[in-house]
Amino acid sequence: MSAPVTLLILGAGGDLTKRLLLPGLASLLAHHDHDVTVIGAGLDDTVRDGWTDLVAEAMHHAADEHPVDERRSDAEETDSVADESTPTERLIASTRYITADATDPDALTELLAACTGTPVIYFALPPAVTAKVCAALQKVDVPEGTRLALEKPFGVDEESARALNERIAAIVPEKQVFRIDHFLGKSTVLNILGLRLANRILEPVWDAGSIERVEIVFDETLGLEGRAGYYDSSGALVDMIQSHVLEVLAIIAMEPPPRVDEVELRDNVAQVLRNTELWSGDPVADARRARYTAGTIGDRTLPSYAEEKGVDPSRKTETLAEVTVRVKTRRWHDVPFVLRSGKALGAKRSQARLVLRPVSPIPGIEGTPREQTIVLDLMTGDVQMQLTMNGGGDPFRLEQSELVAHQDSGDLLPYGEVLRGILDGDPMLSIRADVAERCWHIVQPVIDAWRRDDTPLDEYEAGSDGPSGWRGDGPGLS
Ligand code: BG6
């Protein structure tokens, strides 16, 4: 069992706590022992009465989905003389909500005094409020070992991310800072490492010599889901590409780390992103944006984005973005990485697709070898490869076949995996300060061009696969 920790969630009344944090924590406790107390805090006093029920409900729901594994049950039985209750029951019995303004140093002092063991301050707050709380924390005597966990977006641009990093560095050392990107907690993303590095047939082709193009796509069928307050000032580029998609790119493109640990893995992620830049350097050529109009997805009818509640259409927020970048390392010389993410599309697609260079025809065998790809499905974890063979019927004609490897889903929800690192004090799966700034730097020219309205805002019908004119290999490539 790890040392006792109190997870102090600031902004605990928000959607994130209920939808992602508590279920993630429950999935973690179903598989690993942690002595954790949860304290929720926020300005909204109405959350207090229902708080314990909220925590209990999330825990029970997740317990059904993630039954406690047998090894854990045995271990608990051995401990049961001292305490009959499970870690989850103890957590539910001890949790509470404190109504407080965390931007006030006195209130923060009281919140920290309520924590037992090492406090983990979890900022489930918008960037502007996070910055204010950090300013208040600088005036507080923060207990030794306190960890800070910060939700994305980390700042609103490179400059604000740098200022926030400086502020945080004055509060606790970097190894106690956890900038959250839950994609790094997805087993499907982490599995890319094993797939790349533990397979003799894949490792040698994982470079520009064999790979012609890489596409990383996160298409969602969900629309705005009532999140205008956050999303309308972010858009697809900042919400997904600036953070999650660049992290996936880094895992795909990094050099093999000598060890998978907080130093080596994060150094190699940083190396990739330090060397990632727009494909041609021209943000208008290398990126495109679009916004959905009314349409139907399955049995749901969506209004146009511009008419969604809370949206200011004059902001011209994009709900679909595509950016082409290059990774300026020898391994990826001249290989375009096309990054795409959008909402309200006809089909959910989370995948990395590596397109292999064509092979020459085989004189004496009919047909030209077709495009061969390695597709990593980041939703299911499945891996799919095309193989060209000479066909069953006529052995002198080429045919295309497919190899698919299926994978079981991970034990932990992505937030469970990320929380595991936080509760253990291991920052391997969190974003390092330099990387948080660098990710803004990569997309900043595009943000600026879109703010200046240099790039047209295209339209696509909700439920379609994007604007009809968006064909071709990716922006800047056709
Ligand atoms: C979040 C974004 O970080 O990731 C959402 O803010 C997006 O807009 C979500 O829907 C996607 O994550 P997942 O785990 O649901 O694929």
Describe the structure in brief.
By secondary structure, the protein is of the alpha/beta class. It has 13 helices and 18 strands. 34% of the residues lie in helices and 22% in strands.
Structure description:
- The protein has 13 helices and 18 strands.
- With 478 residues, the protein is an alpha/beta fold.
- It folds into two domains: 147 residues, Rossmann fold, CATH 3.40.50.720; 278 residues, Dihydrodipicolinate Reductase, domain 2, CATH 3.30.360.
- It is globular, with a radius of gyration of 24 Å.
What are the low-pLDDT stretches, counting only 5+ consecutive residues below 50? 74-81
Structural class: alpha/beta
CATH class of the largest domain: Alpha Beta
What's the end-to-end separation, in Å?
Answer: 56 Å
Helices, by number, come to 13
Pfam families: G6PD_C, G6PD_N
Organism: Labedella gwakjiensis
InterPro entries: G6P_DH (IPR001282), G6P_DH_C (IPR022675), G6P_DH_NAD-bd (IPR022674), NAD(P)-bd_dom_sf (IPR036291)
Keywords: Carbohydrate metabolism, Glucose metabolism, NADP, Oxidoreductase
Secondary structure: elements and pairs:
Elements: E1 5-10, H1 15-31, E2 36-42, H2 47-65, H3 70-79, H4 87-94, E3 96-99, H5 105-113, E4 118-123, H6 127-137, E5 147-150, H7 158-169, E6 177-179, H8 187-197, E7 211-219, H9 228-231, H10 235-253, H11 264-274, E8 276-278, E9 287-293, E10 295-297, E11 300-302, E12 320-327, E13 336-342, E14 349-356, E15 373-377, E16 383-390, E17 398-405, H12 414-424, H13 433-451, E18 457-461
Parallel strand pairs: 1-2, 1-4, 2-3, 4-5, 5-6, 7-13, 9-18
Antiparallel strand pairs: 7-14, 8-12, 9-12, 10-11, 12-13, 14-15, 15-16, 16-17
Helix pairs in contact: 1-2, 1-12, 2-4, 7-13, 10-11, 10-13, 11-13
The protein binds 6-O-phosphono-beta-D-glucopyranose.
Residues 220, 239, 414 line the site of 6-O-phosphono-beta-D-glucopyranose.
